[in-house]
Amino acid sequence: xTPRVFTIPAGGGVADALARGLLAQAAGDPLALGxxxxxxxxxxxxxxxxxxFLRAAEGRPLLLPRLLPVGDxxxxxxxxxxxxxxxxxxxxxxxxxxxxxxRQILLARLVLARKDQEVGADQAMHLAAALAxxxxxxxxxxxxxxxxxxxxxxxLAEHWQETLRFLGxxxxxxxxxxxxxxxxxxxxxxxRLTRAQAEAWQAAPPADPVIAVGLLGTNPAEIALLRVVAAxxxxxxxxxGLDRFMDxxxxxxxxxxHPQQPLKRMxxxxxxxxxDVSDWPAPSPGGPDRTVLLRxxxxxxxxxxxxxxxxxxxxxALAGLSRIDCATAQEEAGVIALLxxxxxxxxxxxxxxxxxxxxxxxRVAAQLTRWQVAVDDSAGRPLADTPVGAYLRLVGxxxxxxxxxxxxxxxxxxxxxxxGEPIGLFREALRRLERQVLRGPAPEAGLAGLxxxxxxxxxxxxxxxxxxxxxxxLGPFVDAVRADGQSPAELLRLHIECAxxxxxxxxxxxxxxxxxxxxxxxxxxxAEELLTGxxxxxxxxxxxxxxxxxxxxxxxxxxxxxxxxxxxxxxGPVEGRMARFDRIVLGGLNEGxxxxxxxxxxxxxRPMRREFGLPAPERRIGLAANDFAQAAAGTEVFLTxxxxxxxxxxxPSRWLLRLQAVLDGAGLALAPPQRDWRxxxxxxxxPEAVRPVAPPKPRPPVxxxxxxxxxxxxxxWMQDPYAIYARMVLGLERLDPIEAEPGAAERGTAIHDxxxxxxxxYPETLPPDALDRLLAxxxxxxxxxPPGPDIRTFWWPRxxxxxxxxxxxxxxLRAAGRRAILTEQKGLVTLTAPAGPFALSGIADRIDQGPxxxxxxxxxxxxxxxxxxxxxxxxxxxxxxAMMIRDGGFPGVPQGVPVAGLEHWxxxxxxxxxxxxxxxxxxxxxxxxxxEQALAGLHGLVARFDLPETxxxxxxxxxxxxxxxxxxxxxxxxxxxxxGEE
Length: 982
What we know:
- The protein is of the alpha/beta class.
- The chain is 47% helix and 11% strand.
- It contains 39 helices and 20 strands.
- The strands form 4 sheets. It has a 6-stranded parallel beta sheet. Strands 7, 8, 11, 12, 13 and 14 form a 6-stranded mixed beta sheet that branches.
- Helix 17 crosses helix 21 and helix 21 packs antiparallel against helix 22.
């Protein structure tokens, strides 16, 4: 019998055209429609076809045909479809297919059992996944691994010889495992069932219609089934978008990257000539015919010289076709969301985004929520990215990092964490723990380190009891992960117990909160599958567990069971092949995204694949091209791309470049969209008017204003009064970073303390081994800092150079009759001011006495104020300390001895390890005059801020400090001349 093969033109909507045709064939008989069998690529295609029947029947109730997904075929469906025949009976006796995760775990055990190389458990799991993909590909093509041995000559690279030895896992060890389990690989099981179905139908043709649609014959078993279906008395094979009128030269030169190549390959496998293919008998949906245009765009490379003068192109084919090049992926998502949202303004219209870029799909779904429009990605959401998946990963991370502050904070701030308490109380206790322990330098490792740090912080006993409770929940799992030789099944059990206990509240048990949503159900199913699969798995080092657990999460997807939008969809290219929408957006059209770059085979080179009989990686490009051509033939199509993705310039998809080349050759051009969608997308986030915020001008009551400041705060008061207001009036202080590394301040403090201890230990005479003793004091101070590579690699060598310079300088000064009489000396003076006494405090790093008088020294491990800044009064620290000495503000300073010098000692530890930079008064002045000038300036400053109307401005007169902890509170970048995006 002549095979019955049909095609639905590209753009006709495969599912909708099929539904209309089958309804017409049933002629109103509901039982006739229900007796039909439709073979589809996968289960999601079945959902698409079901919706198409609903549209075609205009909502009338229908008894749908039996929808059988060939890609997900099962034995029960096979028996229902064919009845009891010998071929089916044999297929039903087949051993079951091994579950994919069980197979991955067993393959990982084989990888770990190899003695010639050592890999971690997580690496073994990833290698097992790659081996499973190879098994599926080889078995789907009907090949045998016995051909591997002859692929690599002995003289070829040792790397390939090693690869072949590693593949002994699938050639020798794995078949033995399957025999012991009495199981089959999923691909082989599907192939046998598919062939059995073909043999059954060939032996006993069904009395009712059987239609195969949307299948591209990607493997020999599928081709065999389709050959039988096409030859059945009431069988039919419906191809998506076959170009029946392509010229013979181009047809003969099709390559793997052409959209017609998968169809050509299937027709050759079926033994059907292209001329024998008919159009599917269904009413055309109308719209522009882009067949000729897409034929030219996809023309084989060998015949593209025809682009110089393309024939038959009609400008009408460009109607409804638009291209939008966006600047960034975020802008592209905003434009696509607008395109989809605008469709909803017209009742009954539908739209879809078709893209292989799942990041873009998630961005668009997120953008649509601004209009309370929920659209789910048909590809689902990776379990690892769901709230429950993220929570389980955070639990593992806490154990892996031995309860480091950052990991603990990330876990306990997750919405699922409650620790058996009311959520509000749990969060309040966590905030207290964060301020007391988790911020600043990291405590000792482990939960014990957190407890010790909390005890040392002086926090109340209630917070200690709370931390003890949390530690009791986390402790068993953390201890297990920190140990060696652990069973993965036991680690998983502890992992789940820890997650459930931490998720409990005072009113709801942990399992109920953790597993109740769709992502929770998926995670629970994964956990149960892993508990079974890990039975007998070899012990692993505990720290390998989090990586192993995340490796097992790969591929787990959560799809919503309900709540799909009735008129909008986000689809992958395969789903888009079956569906038809009023508006289609083809997004992510960048080279490397659509089409994607063929993945490198980790096992076989291209020549090896060819000799082995596996298809070239470029075959996937042909399938992607077919998907693109099907969707691009829609009634209204928008082609979008981003010129930059994550800051990296992109290249337009080859299909966009081909389209442009064809249009240029024909003297045609795409009309710009009727609306400027990019401008609209930008406008959404732009305010109607920009009203720059005014600089803050807080005027607190005089009684609330500070009455005591240090000499170092005076310069801040002058340059940034708002910082003084925020800190001294509002009581705001910068939060330390989490797990803070020692910074410049800590380094400066350690150096100051080491030098002060040295001078206090040897006030009169330097010992012969002065440098060694200073270095010993430095080691003691540096040992107080949290350990880190920066201290060992950068800071200590610099301190060693500073110490050598300091000892040399100290010896020279003492020989000249100058020595330190006070170090780290605290001082205080009280000034008379309009609103009452004002106290000025300070700590002098060092006060020396020499032949000419006193010298005030300030150590600087950072930036040294310039002499002009000091003389102008912008940096008055040293002049004010001189004034305090003059007025008796520093105890222990000899009375009546003048201040003869002010010095900054720059201690960088660089090529010039140290340098003395004295303050140089003007020629007509001296240190005493500088001190008096600083005092007068301070009196004026205090008096001005004692006036109620004086505001605490932020950075007045442009005197911006080098660093400010309060600039963001003052919103400086919003109102300053140099403002802009942060």
